[in-house]
Amino acid sequence: SAALKLDVEGSPILNVLRSPPPSPVDGKPLDVLAIAADMQMRALEMIDAFVDSRGLVNYAALARSGQFEAHVKQAAMLVHADDAQLEQLGPEFWINLYNALIMHANVVVGNAKTPEERGTFFGTTAYQVGSITLTLDDIEHGVLRGSPEGDARSFPINDPRRKLAIPTDRVDPRLHFALNCGAKSCPPVKLFKAESLDQDLAAAAASFVASEVVVIEPDEEEGKVTVKLSMLFKWYGGDFSDNDAGLLAALGEFVPAESPTGRGIRRALEHGNFELEFEPYDWSLNDTK
Q1: Residue 11 has what pLDDT?
Q2: Based on the number of CB atoms within 10 Å of its own CB, is 199 exposed (0-12), middle (13-18) or buried (19 or more)?
């Protein structure tokens, strides 16, 4: 894989290789659904071998592995995908593609360490899918979040990629519990499948909310309830609700009502006098080291 690393050096489009796999013999585009199924298999092999029970990645071993080399070669086949089929791809494909691109980028580019580097990393690191180039920001905000109005990362109205955006009324905010951005504070790396997507997102949501939402009771009867929660909810709280009480209520729906988190959220809402405290985000690499 050292050769593969050099193959993409200097280009932010990580699946356009200097020594690409051969084009289809007949010159026709490839079936994107078949490529997606194969990529899912390759991603599962990488996750099984190099992601531990905490969702952390052994990047050093991944970089030297046959599984990573197989993934890079399969990702390169996306360049030959049939543009006409791209709208058939479901949310699970785009979630898995995002997570695979993050792992790929952390091997060949390295992780971003400053806010400026992160802006460049998410705004330029990309895969080419058919004739369309999609950065990490494009996949997350343009496609999966449905290109929300007022977000500079959304696809403009006249952008041909806009047809890939999930319709606003079908955007599932639980996607935020599925995307792994390569940082320790991100949700863990997992694979998502079309046939079990709802259950998988429900499990990811329950796990993240249970571990990242802590309700602290006030010292005195009239005091404020403090709810400590991930910075993710400050950035994307509007995807769940347009107010703090609505956000808490939405998060409460993701965990069992009688779980400690479920009871804590209910008490905060019943108390009425609560404040949200967003925890600093740990951007250090989600490495097993």
Answers
A1: 64
A2: exposed
Which residue(s) pair with 133 in the sheet? 128
CA nearest to 81, candidates 21, 133, 30: 30
The pair of structure tokens assigned to 161 is: 């990629």
Chunked mean pLDDT (size 10), the chain, 289 residues:
41 79 71 91 94 92 95 93 93 96 92 91 94 96 97 95 95 97 92 96 97 88 88 97 97 96 95 94 91
Could you tell me the two tokens for 205?
């949501």
Phi then psi dihedrals of residue 134, to 5 deg: -125, 120
Q: For residue 13, what is the DSSP state? A: B
47 secondary structure, DSSP code: H
The amino acid that residue 234 corresponds to is K
Sign, CA torsion 267/203/61/91: negative
Q: Look-up: residue for tokens 């008490």? A: 267
